[in-house]
Every structure is written in C-alpha cells, then in structure tokens.
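ingest -> fold -> write
write: protein_1
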Amino acid sequence: MPLRPTVLPLISLTLLISSIFICTIAAEQPIKIIDDFGRIVSIPKKPTRIVSLAPSFTETLFALGLGDRVVGVTSYCNYPPEVLEKVGRGEITVVGGYTTPSLEKIVALEPDLVIGHNHLPPDIVMKLEELGIPIILINTSRSIEELYEDIKLIGKACWAEDEAAQLIKTIKDRIAFWEERLKDVRRVDVAEIAWVNPLFVAGNDTYISDIIWHAGGRNVFSDKQGWAQVSDEELVKRDPSHIIVPYRHGVELIYDGIMEMKKRGLIHGEIHPIDPDILSRPGPRVAILFEEVVKAIHPETWEKAVEVERIIAPSRAVVGDLLTIFVLARNPGLVAGEKIVELSINGEVFSQKVLLRPGEARLLNFTFVVKEVGEYVVKAGGQSVVIKVSPTSEEIMSRARESFEKSLQEYLSPMSSRIEVLAGELNNLRERIRNLDVNSTALSERIVELRGELEYLRNMAVTSAIISGIAIAATAILILYIVPRRRKAKT
C-alpha cells in the first residue's frame, strides 16, 4: 500500500533529526590522548574552557582559531595582541607564572582542559588529576618536527585536528620556501647566546640549533648538549661568524654583554638581535624565527627573495626612447627589511633596493634608453614581457634611401656591363663609319671620274655614230652614183 504524501515529509524530517542526533552523539564521544609523558588522558567532550600554561601553547590555540575558548593563561602569554586585550576586558584570567601557576585560580575557572608543560610542579598536575580536570603535558620542543607533533597533539585534544593539519602545512610551506633557496649556500658558523654571566648557549638537541641547521648554518656549539654553560674563552676560541642573541627594548642584558666582548676585540662575528619571545617559544611563529635566522646569516639570499607580481612595460618603442618599466614587487616573507628587486633587459641587470613590510607590495620603476632595433626581453622574478623596438623616422628614410640605391645599383650593375659593350660596339661603328666616310669620299671621286670618262665615252660614241652615219651615207651615195653609171657603161 503506497504511503500518503503527508507521511513522506515526516519520514524525511525524522531521518534528518536522527542523523543530526547520531552525528552529535558521535561528535561528543570522549577521546583519549597520549601526551608527551606517555600519560593517557581522557577528554569527555569538546573543550570550551581551556587553560594554557605556556606562551607557545597560547599562541598555538589562537593560531588554530580557538581563542574564544581560552579562559586562563600565564603572565608571560602576550601574543597575539588579542590575548592582552581579552585579559584587559576580563575575558581571560592570568593564573600565574610559567612555573608558578595558581592551582586555585585554575580550578576556579572550571576548565574542561588544561595544557601544561614539563616544567610544571608535579603536585599541580596531581591535584588537577584528582579533581578530574583533564590535563595534557607537552615537552618543550627540541626540533621543528617535534613542534609539528605538539601542534597535532593540541589540535587533537581540542577537537581541532583539521585546523592543526592546516596550520602545520602553512608553517611547512613557509619553511620550505626558504629551504629551497638555501639548498646550494655555503654553511656559516653560528652561535645562539641564551644568557651571559655566566654564558649559556644553545647546544645540540635544542629547538634553535635545529633551526640554525635548516637555515643554512652550523652551530659551533653542537658538541654541547641542550642549553649548556660555557666559558667566555670557549666563545672567543670558536669565534663564530654570526651570533644570535635575544633582544628587546628593556631587555638588553645579553645583547650588551656580547657587544662588549666584540668591542674589546674578543669576538668578531656579526651580532643579530632577535625578539626573545619569538626566539624562545617553539610555536606557530617558528616560520618568522626561521626567516629571521635566514636574514641574519644569509642576507644575500633573503634580500633577493622577492615575488614579482607584474611587469608593466610598453609593447613597442622607437630607438632613442627613454622607457620606464614598472615592476610590482612583493615581500613574500614574514619579516620586514630591504629587498633587492632585479630587472633583466636582454641580459643586462638593473637593481633597486626597497624597504618592504611582510606581504607588502610596491610599484618600482626602472628607466633605460633603447639603443638598438629588435626585440627586448624584460624579465623580473618569474615574469617576462617583450618590447619590439623600431627605428626612428630618419633612420627609416635613410634605410629606405640606402635600400633604393642598393636596389638601383643591383639593377644597373648588369646594364653597365652591357652599356660598356654597346659603347665599344658604338666606337667600332664610329670607326667603321669614319672609314666608310673616307671610302665614300674616294668612291665619290672615282664616280666623278667615271662619270667624266662615261661622258667622254658617250661623246665619243655619239661622234663615232655620227661619223659612221656619215660614212654609211657617203657610201650609199657613192653606190647609188657608181652602180647606175656602170650599168650605163655596159649598155
């Protein structure tokens, strides 16, 4: 029997509600976390009231987008600025120092998750466990990879694993950006000074030592383990090319102590002050720290790391033009400073220095005079354009004239040979005509002579004819006279 039309929407609605309910139940299922101490911690529901007992954890929570769930922090938790703003508004409570948090303040916040570290007093951890407040303990990271694991752990404990995976990817991409540019650099000697009087340095198996290595440096105290105390003489003997020190206005003790050694000529390396909060906190700002170290020990690499977003140039020009080419360059990193922007025009390199904040883009202009006809290939970063250069109108006329003269010469060249032949033949003809003229004159004279002779002969012929006629007539007359007389005589 078919279902009535009114029943179908009800079934669909029931299925939808059931799906939501099932998903909600599944989402609210307790999870178990194994922290850095091997403790199995059960977290019954998604934490919405979190107490962070280390500045690096607080930074991580806010970087994961969980700042609205944080209700308690230490007095050292000062980043991002939103933390202090929330503290000022009473939305977040300061529960004490890094190693001296107040158990009473933590409990009073009724947290459903506390994130602690390996330097916490054990009794605080035990009391929280006895009260049924979930607390996970995280060791201070000794490498970049351990930092990734810590972010994963915090993400899982806060039911934000996807956000943690994305944050890790972002950090890895930023570090990989610099590692790619550093793969062929020569390693330089570096030391990180954690304290003076007595002198403490970062040895092997420390977070900063790992960063120095990945940033193209060599920790001169890598033979020491952890945060090691050394003598001033050891630092003088090793005399690294670069010395990293924590420094911030109002916290100059370490910086001043190392600078004094340099002024006395005991050490000669470059001194690089870095914000102690960034330097000492293995957290989401590791990408900033990494870039700061790159900038310090390999400035030639850092300065040229510029992203060219666009080249603006004319597509055509005329020889002699003063061209202006615009380059839109951006600082792809997280650290401000002077960047070198290079522009190549047919292999000739032009460069400018420009101060850029993190992510800032500025439009730079380069000028040059076009000297030759042809195609000019302009390159900057991964961008390129082509400028086609034509000659000037005067050059066009000059070239046209030269081309016409050349073509005319090529056309007349074979004719000139023919003209020379014709000229020779004409000279020969003229000579023959001259000879003919001479011969004609002689012939004319001969003709005249012949004509005279002919006239003479004709006259002679006429005379002869007349004489012959006379003779014949005379003869006839004689005959006519003689014959009848003879006849008469006979008779």
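write: protein_2
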Amino acid sequence: MTSARALSAILSCALLAAPVAHGSDQAEQKSTRPQLTAAEASLYSYKEVLKYKGAAGNEIADPWDPLSDVLVDGAPAKPDYIVDAAAKADDTSVFNSVQAAIARAVADGNAQPDASKPPKHAGRLTILVKPGTYHELVYVPPTAIPITLIGGSGDAKDTVISANLDAAIAGADYARKFGAQFAQTAPAIAAMFAAVKDKPMVETVGSAIVWIRGDGFQARNITFENAYNKDRGDAREECPPGGCPTTLVNGTMQVVHHQAVALMVDGADRVQFENIRLLGYQDTLFLKAAADGVTVRSFFDRSYIEGDVDFIFGDTTAYFYRSEIKSLGDRSTSYMAAPSTNYLTRYGFVFDSCRFTNDGSANALKGKFYLARQWFHSQRCTPYAPVTVPQSVEGYACNPGTGNGYQAPNGTISKQVLETVGKVVILHSKIGAHINREHPWSNWNNKGTLAYRPVQYDSNDYWDNLVAVHIDPVAALGYGARKEPADHFLAEFDNMQE
C-alpha cells in the first residue's frame, strides 16, 4: 500500500475486519471473508492471471501484457474506417452504422493481399466511431485480422451503442426488429444473426447488444448499453411476491428473470477494453468460453460496469483493473458477479484496484448486497440438499450421470456441471457500504429448491461437499486426489470497506 493510499484509507475507509467465522452446514467453521496471504496475492498479478490459455487442467503459457498495448496510451489512432451517422456513406471507408463498418473490416481482413500494393493495415483494422448514439446491434465474428473500435472522443459517454433486447423476446420478433441491419452483410455475421432468429426465444446469449467472437478485439472510449428496462427501472424481483418458497421444487428456475446482455465476449481470446462503459441491469457482461473448460482471456482497464443481478458472469478468465463496478438497487437483492469457472481452470474473475460502488438507493444502503454467487450452470437438480417433491411417494434423488435432467422425483447431474465452481478474487480495492460485510459471498439460490448450491470458498469445500452427499470425487468424477494446497475460489486481499 502506498503512503497516499494509506492516508486515504485512514481518512475515509476502514480496512476489512479480520475474517469472521460463522456456523454452516459443514463440520468445521469457515471464514465468510477468506483472505489471501501476500505470497498468495502475488500470484494474481495481471501478467500471471492472463498468462495461460487452453484446456482447463492443461493450460499452456502464452504471455500477454495488455498494458503494453498502444490502446492504453489513448493516442489518436489513424482509422481504416469511420462511422458517422451524419456523413455521406461510401460503404468503403465511411459508414453510417457500426455494423456496416465491422462487415467491411471482416471482408477486407479476409481478402487475399495484393502483392503489388502496400498493405492497408499493420496487423489490425481500426474503426473510429464519431460521437453519437447508434441504435443497433453489433456482431463481430471470428476475424482473420483483429478489429479495434474507438469512440470519437476521450469520454466514453459521448459514443454509445444501444438497443433494447431481453432474453424472453421471441426469435421471430427479434428478426422483425433487427433483421434489416443484417439483410446484406458478411456471411459470418449473417450466420450469427440466423443462429438467434430461429430460436423460439432468443435466450440470454441472443440478448447481447454487442457480441464479440473475434480474437484480439479491442474497444476504447465507448459505451455499450442494453436499454432493456432503462426507461422504467428494474424494480421486479426474481421470485413472486413473498419470496421464493423453499417448498416450491423449481424455486426461481421457472421465473422470468430479465436477462439482458450489453456485451458478450464469446470464445474470443486476448480481448481488451480501455475506458469503456457497460450499462444494463441483469447479466450486463457475459464472458463465455467457446467450449466448457477452455480458458480464454479478457482485460478491462479504467472502465465502468453497472447492473443489479449477476451482472458480470461467465466461465472465462477476466482481469478488471482500475475500474468502477456499480451495483444498482432497483431490486432488494443484488449480486455483482456470477462466475461459472471450471474447477480445473487456474483463474476466474480477478478485480484489482477497483471501486465497488452503488447508486445510493434505499435497497443498496441497507448493506445486504453480495459480491458474487457461484453460477451452478446448466444444472437441473441439486445433490447438495433434499428437495420436497409434492405428491410423491418416492424420495428425491439427484445423482451423478452423463447428462443433466430431472423428472420428479429423480434427477441426474453431470461432472461438467458439478465442476462449474466459480472463482472470484478481489485485490487492493474499495468495497462500498452496499456489500454485506459479514457475508459478501452468497449461496446459489435457496436451500430446498432444485437450483441450490452452497457457497464454496475453496477446493476443499468442493471436495468435502461432494463427499458429504456421497459423491466420491475419485470413483465418481475421476480425480486423483484433492488439491494441495487448496485452490482459492473466493478470496480477498488488501481491500478497504466503507
């Protein structure tokens, strides 16, 4: 801690209290705020976290230093393409929409170079977006040459890509609303659109306003917004009035939630964002691996992300540096992150030198919001606690299997789903008064419902929880032995709390 920061801590914040032990379902008491040692924290530097890619458990070293990239300097870039809604478009270098410029960049990047002419680019294609609000979707497919998107001023608020789209909209309605912008575009982009429009509902993946699949994509000085509910607020609960009854088998599972993604990074590696703003409520930022248990990396620097429920979620490795993470209090409960990191993946989400703020709402000021709950991704039943099955003469069961399903009173759960443990580490950050001081990490849904899983702070918790419900990690899941030393799933180091 620098002297300036130490002085700031004395003036405005108190250092986090020592870890508090509390009673739990486990035999031994666990700290609700596990802290790293200095030696352990050194393993969470951005260079170390972003060093690895590939299959979980067999990741390879591929060093990446995003802070050495010219994107961070903020120097004016010489664009290959300009987006200006007020200009006369020539569809070659000047465009009226961001998606049209992306389509041209994709086509130019895939074109065979002319050996008789100097290259148009030096390993990257840059799109400058003039200030304004662009009401559209932006899809970036896998690209031969990476693309950089830069807002036309130094203030990300001046350049906005915004649309209103939620997970419950029918595919046909999505096609009617957005089809025109994809009528004539690059085949790879048209394929992304087609994959969504043919669904009964677009679902969470299809609700993304900006969808990135291209390795090496960058963005700077720009806002990505999902405007769903932004005109009226998000004051609707996850469960019906009165809460989620623990006797209801499906609990929260059958409730329409309000997923509406502003930015989805989908299987893309070495994706970098500098001074961007992500606006939404539930599921604002989705960081998605191309396949389960495959590590790809994203880096967010000096950025702003807001939302209310699970608004930073997914299964990739991501580093958030010098950024503001704001919890909105329209709902009475808020979860900042919902990681589904694989058990064998080295790192999940790491927040370093960030500020966790709130909107000053009455709900936020109650101090009961959470930093994260670990996403029990794709489960259909829980082995971690019994569930009451109405009108059933058989006992409830959820056993390991090759797939995930539930037909009352019996269900199966796969190794792949059990391994979605979720990892978050927060370092050198300031945590606002909206976060629950004693219990900042939450269970996944309520005990007594099919969606329940207890919070798991480390790999010992994961192992012990399996053993407690008679799932043998060695015989049933094929592990050699528990990890020694234990792998941290949820932890903090050198944080300050209001």
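write: annotation protein_2
The longest strand covers residues 218-226.
The two ends are 17 Å apart (CA to CA).
pipeline exit 0
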